[in-house]
Design goal:
Length: 467
């Protein structure tokens, strides 16, 4: 067998072993009863939704008796939350929602997800609530009490102008209330408090939630969770199931490579840096065509960044401001305006960066330190460019004739007094004329020019020379 064939077979064997090892770390033996554990930490976005739904399917296929969905989240995107809830409701095995460890929270979208679970539990020192939905514009869709009873025609006119916006706000609010109330009624929990969490952003601690029947019980750890859930009857996939979970081992289901990759690129700061790397990579390729590396790298980064942006809550006004800022900075390079375009470009770029992602969605903002650092670098680069421009303006300018008067060269042939000949000056052959006779090879300096004829004189020792 050839060396190349050995390499190919070796690579196939290594890949098979890696796949087998990976599956062995997340799959339990078919003969052993177990409970799967999925950890939902951080903001709820496309990566989290894909991870949870795929992990539920894998755990079901592996024969898990139940799933513990351990949560610590500030909330997140509405569509991703709905995907997770749909996965929980469609699961063929019970999902136990568990807010843990101590200090964790199930805020905003996390409250809806906890209500969707057949069993809801919390660890001591945790809290949930603040489930009011937020509109794209960042305005909380809650009607003001004053709107129901305007005191003057002026307020009535104002209400009329806002009628379209308020109608849309009420749609969002009422839809959210209906969603969480239906989940509460499905599992027999406190629907009235659920409505308060949406309408008034109410919150509860673990003990308060258990006392008001918002959650089923408080459990100190996962083992206590399984023990307290044991024997309870729950609704699962349209039927009723009695849980038998006491003493079963827990098997963790970590995110797969795709979920990890999506989690990285959908981090707002990473997506922001990928977008900038793509833009500046293509700009460098345009300035240095044929180098390929910045163009290829920039193209890949730009495509990944744009893919991440279409998964994230992006403000297109912010994106437009960023593009305008980059365009103004480039215009400053080609059309010097003493910094007017450059300063405007930096301001537009920084403002667009701050506006790029919706700050009202928990966990989806760009690190302000990164924006400040990039803005400072842009200002420093602009100041350096302006300094070079001012230095160039102060430098004595030479046109072609003035520069030629500074040059010296060498005669290629002898020249009689008042005669003409050829000389090499500045690396070029020129027709020259001398008032004095000069031998071939003599060093001469240009003293004047008549079209293509140069007047020269003998080069004296001690004179400076620029050629």
């Amino acid at each position: 067998m050839s060396r190349k064939a050995w390499i190919v077979w070796g690579a196939i064997l290594c890949a098979a072993l890696a796949l087998a090892w990976t599956r062995s770390t997340v799959e339990a033996p078919a003969s052993e009863a177990f409970v799967a554990r999925i950890e939902l930490n951080g903001p709820i976005g496309p990566a989290a939704a894909e991870y949870v739904t795929s992990a539920i399917h894998r755990a079901t296929d592996d024969g898990a008796k139940a799933i513990v969905l351990q949560m610590d989240t500030p909330g997140g995107l509405l569509e991703s939350m709905r995907d997770i809830i749909a996965g929980i409701l469609a699961a063929k095995i019970p999902v136990l929602g568990y807010v843990a460890p101590s200090g964790a929270r199930a805020a905003s979208a996390g409250t809806y997800i906890l209500y969707a679970c057949p069993i809801a539990a919390m660890a001591p020192g945790t809290h949930l609530g603040a489930a009011t939905p937020i509109e794209m514009g960042g305005r909380t869709p809650m009607p003001s009490p004053l709107d129901s009873a305007p005191s003057s025609s002026k307020s009535s006119d104002k209400a009329d102008t806002r009628s379209g916006t308020d109608a849309e706000s009420n749609k969002i609010l009422n839809d959210a209330i209906a969603t969480i109330r239906s989940l509460a009624q499905l599992h027999g929990r406190n629907a009235a408090w659920a409505e308060q969490a949406v309408r008034g952003a109410a919150t509860l601690t673990a003990s308060e939630a258990a006392a008001q029947h918002v959650v089923d019980f408080v459990a100190s750890d996962s083992e206590a969770l399984l023990a307290q859930a044991d024997g309870r009857a729950v609704h699962v996939n349209g039927g009723t199931l009695t849980l038998a979970l006491r003493g079963l081992p827990l098997h963790d289901y970590p995110p797969n490579w795709r979920a990890r990759f999506l989690g990285i690129i959908t981090n707002p700061t990473i997506a922001y840096l990928l977008l900038l790397a793509g833009i500046y990579g293509l700009i460098l390729e345009a300035f240095h065509p044929g180098s390929f590396y910045p163009g290829v790298t920039g193209g890949i980064c730009l495509l990944i960044g744009l893919y991440a942006l279409q998964l994230l809550p992006v403000s297109y006004a912010g994106l437009t401001l960023m593009a305008l800022g980059v365009a103004l900075l480039l215009a400053e390079v080609f059309i010097p305006t003493a910094g007017v375009l450059g300063v405007g470009g930096v301001i537009a770029f920084v403002l667009g960066s701050i506006m790029l992602f919706r700050s009202d969605v928990p966990g989806y903002t760009v690190n302000l330190g990164v924006i400040a650092g990039l803005g400072f670098c842009a200002m420093a680069l602009l100041a350096m460019l302006l300094r070079l421009v001012m230095r160039a303006r102060r430098t004595r300018a030479f046109n072609g004739k003035e520069q030629m008067l500074q040059d010296a060269g060498e005669l290629l042939q002898a020249v009689a007094a008042g005669g003409e000949g050829w000389a090499r000056i500045g690396g070029e052959r020129w027709r020259v004329q001398s008032e004095a006779a000069l031998p071939a090879g003599a060093r001469v300096r240009v003293t004047g020019r008549d079209g293509l004829l140069l007047r020269v004189t003998a080069f004296q020792k001690g004179e400076g020379e620029t050629s």
